[in-house]
Design brief:
heterodimer; A: mainly alpha; 8 helices; B: mainly alpha; 41% helix; elongated
């Protein structure tokens, strides 16, 4: 049976078991689809692009080693989030992080407002970097990546109650840090 | 800063694009490291297969050399010349010289050997 598929169709076919798994093509497709997710998550947790790139590379190497043994596309995403967070936690434990200010392009708006929002984001990121890694990961996954509390719990390997508690505590701490700076 | 405001800022961060050069570095790094591992993954089986083939070639029984085709010779009318008939000579084997038995030596009896030479005046005598 010959398949002529590309892009998303290819990935779905691989995940549905219609094509041989662990092909170079399908692995490349997964990288292209998920690289932004992995790199952005690592950057938000680690606070700098250089470390985030290293972690992202390691995540995809583990994916290659593991093979595409997933039941569906959501499982791929969950697995990648979990490995990314775990590697970021290991990375911060080994104290290799070098803090740098985020350099992200701002969306279209007036120059003054854009500068103001950018400053706020940088302060928020700096405050986020002071939190314990588990709390930071919970905030990044739910607030920035937009996962549900249940999904975050699945990624972090904890209960929903714990995740809610971690996020609540983190938000209180962040507010405290930012309001203290404003005064 | 309120919690609502923080959540808005977080949501904006979600939509921010990731630097293309960072993505390119990740892709390149993964490609290089996966490629390197793949090379090793294939190198060992290939080397083993090479050893098996080499062993097979060295240990296989020697075959008879293939017949070499002679170049075709032009057809020439052949005349068979019978060999000249020679008289058949029968050669008889030379008779074996008869062995001369030594005379048995008897204890106490003197043995004498007399050898005659071509010269009738000379006779050699051995006396025991």
């Amino acid at each position: 049976m010959k398949h002529v598929l590309s892009g998303r169709g290819m990935l779905e076919a691989v995940l549905m078991g219609e094509l041989p798994r662990e092909t170079t093509g399908s692995f490349d497709q997964v990288i292209r689809q998920r690289e932004t997710q992995v790199l952005r998550t690592a950057f938000r947790i680690l606070g700098n692009w250089a470390d985030a790139e290293d972690v992202a590379q390691e995540v995809f190497l583990r994916l290659h080693k593991n093979g595409l043994k997933f039941e569906n596309e959501a499982a791929v995403g969950g697995w990648l989030y979990r490995v990314t967070v775990n590697l970021c936690v290991d990375w911060t434990r080994s104290a290799r992080t070098a803090q740098e200010l985020p350099e992200l392009p701002s969306p279209d708006r007036s120059a003054e407002a854009a500068v103001l929002v950018e400053e706020e984001k940088q302060r928020l990121m700096a405050a986020l970097a002071t939190l314990p890694t588990q709390e930071r990961a919970a905030v990044v996954l739910r607030e920035i990546e937009g996962l549900s509390t249940a999904e975050v719990a699945g990624v972090l390997g904890s209960s929903e109650v714990t995740v809610r508690s971690q996020i609540s505590k983190a938000m209180v701490k962040l507010r405290g840090i930012l309001n203290r700076e404003e005064v | 800063m309120t919690e609502r405001h923080m959540q808005d800022l977080f949501r904006e961060m979600r939509d921010e694009p990731v630097p293309q050069d960072s993505l390119a570095r990740v892709r390149l790094g993964v490609e290089q490291r996966v490629g390197r591992k793949s090379w090793w993954k294939f190198a060992v089986p290939l080397a083993m297969a090479g050893c098996v083939v080499a062993g097979f070639l060295l240990l296989r029984p020697a075959k008879a050399p293939l017949p070499v085709e002679q170049p075709a010779t032009p057809e020439v009318a052949q005349v068979v010349i019978p060999p000249p008939e020679l008289p058949i000579r029968t050669v008889q084997a030379a008779p074996r010289p008869k062995r001369v038995r030594r005379p048995q030596r008897v204890e106490g009896v003197p043995v004498s050997i007399r050898i005659e030479t071509p010269d009738p005046d000379v006779v050699i005598l051995f006396v025991n």
